[in-house]
Amino acid sequence: KAGVTQTPRYLIKTRGQQVTLSCSPISGHRSVSWYQQTPGQGLQFLFEYFSETQRNKGNFPGRFSGRQFSNSRSEMNVSTLELGDSALYLCASSRAGDGTWETQYFGPGTRLLVL
Amino acid sequence: QQQVKQSPQSLIVQKGGISIINCAYENTAFDYFPWYQQFPGKGPALLIAIRPDVSEKKEGRFTISFNKSAKQFSLHIMDSQPGDSATYFCAASRRGSQGNLIFGKGTKLSVKP
Q1: Which residues 38-97 on chain A approach chain B with CB closer than 8 angstroms?
Q2: Radius of gyration from C-alpha coordinates of chain A
Q3: Is B82 strand, coil or helix?
């Protein structure tokens, strides 16, 4: 079974631009979560989508948004990029049943550099 | 406010030794505690996980010890190998928010041959 895939793997943008990152979950997984990883702040939760609806949201400004499609694929968008948005953006998928004992499987990430 | 505190930040262990990484949490609503391993250029991969109704879980050379009253849990890597050199993250989540993992800051482990 193929793992979580993320595209693109690397991205360079300039301040003020916007960016869209894509994530394809493991087949059969309906939940997709996004995380930002930086050396200073570590891994921080951005949001989670399940059945095309945002189910949970972390403490990030409204410039960060996402969506999920009917095939469970997800995109996240960052508008008006700032230097501090440079990070590794990780997507994770899970089957997302009703319980909490669900493993999240991470993709390799998209490394975003904002100049 | 850091909900999951992890220590040490870095750890150097000799091959064959025991690596111990500790985590403490604040939110008593957490009921799922996974450990992830991350190699450079890769996403985190689940290593082992525990729920608070057990005090210990072992999978091969990896053991989680859980102390509910102290709100602490730790990862023990027995017979550490150079291939174990990676960054390890503890995490926690709670029912109803299972897609939201709260991570510790990570521990960079180096196992010397």
Answers
A1: 42-45, 48, 50, 55-56, 58, 90, 92, 94, 96
A2: 13
A3: helix
